[in-house]
Write a structure and sequence with these properties.
Immunoglobulin-like, Rossmann fold, 3 domains, nine-stranded mixed beta sheet, 12 helices, 31 strands, about 20% helix, elongated, transmembrane helix, membrane
């Protein structure tokens, strides 16, 4: 009864302090409580040195699956204060102990001690909860031995966790023995974990795990109720730090490097470091031994001087990686005849591996000189080749990786047709003289009249009296294609200037494309062999078209003799080419006729405009 009166007095005093010293609380960072309509009182007992948690909620009875605390709760859900009488009779409505931290709706005591005994109050959802905390000295528990605050489980085996002090004499005053225990794994009640794994409480007290996992290494709390003579029920809360270890290994250490017998290259007169890496299985009393031994000429192994201490790294919970290094200050000839052995040992057995040294081969002087020289010559020859064939490379790039064409641009013509006029000759077809039209006459009629292209013909579309060179340059740059009708007469005429102008424009303008159409009188016309060395030679000196002799081209009126321009001679080798055969004249592409190969290829080579007639 006296305890109840004392608690009521403390609550009243704190409410008065909240109004009288509100400014003082704010300056000190206090969170003073505003009283609710309901007040409840509970008691806790803790043991000095334990971790203790007290949440702003009613203690759960045994068998209930409630949380130990709610880590996600906001500060507004749990307003805490501590009330205790100080020497100057002041009462503090705030927590001023650095050992007490807030975690969600709970107070977390990292190392509870006698100074934390007292009354704590919290406000939650309109209810004031009073908690009387009594911290007991560990030696006053009445146990026969000092109880640990931790336990160790073995991975992969079954394990049991005992609640500390549950069978001690601290509850003997009421004659109460063997209380039921409520277990928590961190903030979760153990009974809520049964659906996920085989964990349960034996005899109402012992927490049993049928199979221990690595994740079982956590903080555990156990609660049980203790009733004293005054009739007040106290919740005793104990803490255990549970760790998980592997079972002791049953195999000797395993050599990682050297794996068996290794050889390392060294240089005479230089220092060399030997490194041994060994994998040890877990042992509770872990005491690994790794040593370097050196032997030569049948002499027993001599222990080498090691560098530093053993480097031990935990690879997994069941394995350790150990590194041992030794150094040879100066490699001598005797070391090349020696054997270096790494010996590893644990309580189960030992293992070893060896390293022998060999001299590094000297770098071949020939390799050192020849390799850079060959590389330089290769790069130089590559650069010279690119320089020589730069024109061909540029034209090939323009032809096979062309600029993406559009049907509407600033060009005035679809194609500029360059040719040398030829005279028609009569041919007898079925006993009747007939005339086959030359390609320079047939081509414009098909491209313009049938396919709908716009062509540029110098004698038709340019005004007379202009400068020839300026007209050609304008016509080339105003067209999307340059179509050259190649023939022996063309090769010997001034029309080569039109082709040369187109080639130079192609190097600068990716939108222009050049198409060569070779014409001739035979059934299978082909371009002349290259290089063409001169013009005006006797045409009977060699057979035209023979690959082993240079071609002599006849003069045409208004032509000039001389070799082909270098730009033209090189470009003709790589420019796209079609071959005209007079038999293709009546096999044009129409809506109902696919046409000959010549007309199909010509149609694909033209710009993407024009419609079949």
């Amino acid at each position: 009864m006296r305890t109840r009166v004392t608690l009521d007095f403390l609550i009243t005093a704190c409410f008065l302090q909240n109004h009288l010293y509100e400014g003082h609380c704010k300056n000190k960072g206090a969170e003073c409580l505003k009283p609710g309509l309901t007040t409840e009182t509970y008691g806790y007992k803790a043991v000095s040195g334990d971790v203790f948690v007290m949440q702003c909620a009613k203690p759960y009875s045994a068998g209930l699956c409630g949380h130990l605390y709610n880590i996600s709760a906001s500060p507004e859900e749990a307003n805490w204060l501590r009330s205790e009488r100080e020497t100057n009779s002041d009462r503090k409505c705030f927590i001023d102990d650095v050992a007490v931290k807030r975690h969600g709706n709970a107070l977390w005591f990292s190392n509870v001690s006698a100074k934390h005994s007292g009354t704590y109050m919290c406000l939650t959802r309109g209810t004031v909860l009073n908690f009387s905390l009594e911290v007991l000295d560990r030696g006053s528990l009445g146990c026969k031995h000092t109880e640990p605050i931790g336990d160790t489980l073995i991975l992969g085996q079954g394990g049991k966790i005992y609640c500390p002090g549950v069978n001690c004499g601290n509850c003997s005053a009421s004659g109460f023995r063997g209380p039921n225990v409520t277990w928590y794994q961190k903030e979760k009640a153990v009974c809520s974990l049964r659906e996920k794994r085989d964990i349960f409480v034996v005899d109402g007290q012992i927490l049993q795990l049928n199979n221990v996992y690595v994740t079982d290494a956590k903080d555990y709390f156990c609660d049980y109720t203790c009733r004293q003579d005054d009739g007040i029920s106290w919740t005793v809360r104990r803490y255990l730090k549970v760790s998980v270890i592997a079972r002791d290994t049953q195999v000797p250490p395993r050599m990682i490097y050297p794996h068996s017998n290794e050889t390392e290259e060294v240089e005479l007169g230089e220092p060399h470091t030997l490194e041994c890496r060994v994998q040890f299985g877990f042992q509770k009393n872990f005491n690994p031994v790794v040593e370097w031994l050196v032997s030569s000429h049948g002499n027993p192994g001599v222990l080498m001087e090691h560098i530093g201490q053993l480097q031990v790294n935990l690879s997994t919970i069941e394995e350790f990686n150990v590194v041992r290094t030794a150094q040879i200050p100066e490699v001598k000839l005797i070391h090349l005849d020696s054997t270096f052995t790494c010996l590893a040992q644990n309580s189960v057995g030992n293992s070893s591996a060896t390293i022998r040294l060999k001299r590094k081969p000297k770098e071949s002087l020939t390799l050192v000189i020849v390799f850079p020289l060959v590389s330089m010559l290769f790069l130089a020859s590559l650069g010279i080749t690119v320089h020589i064939y730069w024109l061909e490379i540029t034209i090939l790039y323009r032809v096979y990786w062309p600029y993406r064409e559009i049907t509407i641009d600033e060009k005035e013509f679809d194609a500029f047709v360059s040719y040398v006029p030829s005279t028609s000759r009569p041919e007898e077809v079925g006993g009747v003289h007939a005339t086959k039209e030359p390609l320079e006459v047939l081509l414009p009629r098909v491209l313009e009249g049938t396919w709908g292209y716009r062509l540029c013909l110098l004698e038709r579309d340019l005004l007379p009296g202009g400068a020839y060179t300026e007209d050609v340059v304008w016509a080339v740059h105003s067209s999307r294609r340059l179509v050259c009708l190649m023939s022996p007469e063309y090769m010997a005429s001034t029309c080569l200037f039109e082709l040369e102008t187109g080639i130079r424009a192609l190097q600068q303008n990716a939108r222009l494309r050049i198409l060569l159409i070779w014409t001739g009188t035979g059934p299978n016309p082909r371009p002349p062999p290259f290089p063409v060395t001169g013009l005006g030679t006797d045409p009977t000196a060699a057979e035209p078209g023979h690959p082993s002799t240079p071609l002599s081209l006849p003069r045409s009126p208004g032509t000039t003799a001389g070799p082909l321009p270098p730009v033209v001679r090189r470009a003709i080798r790589v420019l796209p080419t079609l071959y005209w055969n007079p038999r293709d004249q009546g096999r044009m592409v129409t809506s109902s006729n696919p046409g000959s190969r010549f007309w199909r290829s010509l149609r694909k080579a033209m710009p993407p405009r024009g419609v079949l007639g």
